[in-house]
Amino acid sequence: MIQIQIETDPLFSPPNQEICESIIHSICAKHQIQDLALTLIFAQDDLLTNLKKEFFKLDQFTDVIAFRLNEYDEKNVEGEIYISLPRAKENAVTFDEQFEKETSRLIIHGCLHLLGFNDETSDEKREMTNMEDNFLSQINWQNLFEKIEK
Fold first, then answer.
1. pLDDT tens string 27-42
2. Count of structural domains, the chain
């Protein structure tokens, strides 16, 4: 069973639940994941910065953090993905992408980390980016946020 819970900082409009679920379901189908319990948290920079300090000993902004809550060798996947919406907005401007597409990329990126993919080397980064691009070309990420302030 795939269970997805979405939490959003009250300062932001929440994402479209169906689109989030569709993105995550497509990743699960591709990687043959049948049991998933995921909490997707859309937050401010300060939450992710504090998590980065506490768990990674780095004092810096980050756009996405994924925590696998059970062991990677277990078939079922339990995890949390934290996404900074201010970083997603900044990334969208930097990379000349739509905000919804960039946020969808971060959802995909976090899911791939939960499945055990890494992006520490240039080859790993390239592999993850290719997977992200592939998913983005196959899913409906448009209208992820119905009301977005520009």
1. 999 999 999 999 999 9
2. 1
